[in-house]
Amino acid sequence: MDQVLIEGLRVETVIGVYEWERHVQQSLELDLELATDIRAAARDDDLSHTLDYAAICERLTAYATDNAHGLVETFAERVAQLVIAEFGVRRLRLTVRKPGAVASARAVGVRIEREAG
To answer: What pLDDT is attached to residue 92?
Structure first.
């Protein structure tokens, strides 16, 4: 299975379990590996036969802006469900990092893998 990559997508969202976090936007960084078959797109040189990473980035940015979550885990699960449902991705690996959440770490986060049902 081929992979379409999106690395280092920065989105702004309300994320966190502490009261002060519920009132500010924070940055998250997303890396996605999206399983798909790119052969038809490559053969025809046709974007409609592959995953449109610009459209995916736009959708995830809008989702992050419009939704608040307490846990990074919840955000990751919802993003995975969205990408599978709306873009027809067969399988994905998603890493979500929350830079600066812990003073002694560059970032904390989660990595999940999901498949279409």
So the answer is: 98
